[in-house]
């Protein structure tokens, strides 16, 4: 019995030692684990700080690039405005030159019309079989030139007759004679 009790005490003592050792190993592992967790946390914080610094650097570089792009856009807008102004000036100059051409054309038309008024007066005057004077021959040559020019520009015989004050038959005759002369000269 004493042997049974002592055996029981030894088993209990060994059980207590075993439990104590196990508890100590658990605490050591927990301590090591918490230490490595702390190290991991410190390493993660350090890495996060580096990432934040890199992002701040990239952000500052992007802001610089954006400001440069804005400056270039402003410069291009100024150049575009200058090109638009030059184009507008050129267009104005072209419009003015076109207006001057139209004005000179209409002036020549007006002079033709005033010449036609004189031609109408001459046409209404009685026909006299007198020798042609040099002035009248020159006026007929001028009318011929005007008639042929207007015909080449595509004017209708009626329009040419109104502008020159001559009859349609005379104008048609002049145009046909001119065409025959061109055919014969070719």
TrEMBL record:
Keywords: Coiled coil. InterPro entries: DUF6115 (IPR046118). It comes from Dendrosporobacter quercicolus. This is Uncharacterized protein. It holds the Pfam family DUF6115. Residues 30-86 form a coiled coil.
């Amino acid at each position: 019995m004493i042997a049974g009790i002592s055996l029981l005490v030894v088993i209990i003592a060994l059980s207590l030692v075993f439990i104590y050792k196990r508890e100590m190993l658990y605490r050591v592992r927990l301590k090591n684990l918490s230490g490595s967790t702390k190290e991991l946390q410190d390493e993660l914080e350090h890495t996060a700080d580096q990432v934040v610094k890199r992002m701040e650097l990239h952000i500052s570089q992007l802001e610089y690039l954006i400001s440069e792009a804005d400056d270039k856009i402003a410069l291009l807008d100024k150049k575009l405005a200058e090109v638009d102004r030059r184009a507008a000036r050129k267009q104005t100059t072209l419009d003015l030159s076109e207006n001057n051409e139209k004005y000179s054309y209409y002036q020549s038309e007006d002079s033709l019309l005033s010449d036609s008024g004189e031609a109408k007066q001459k046409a209404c005057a009685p026909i006299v079989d007198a020798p042609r004077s040099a002035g009248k021959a020159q006026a007929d040559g001028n009318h011929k030139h005007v008639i042929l020019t207007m015909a080449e520009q595509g004017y209708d015989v009626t329009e040419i007759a109104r502008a020159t004050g001559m009859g349609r038959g005379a104008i048609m005759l002049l145009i046909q004679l001119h065409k025959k002369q061109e055919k014969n000269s070719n």
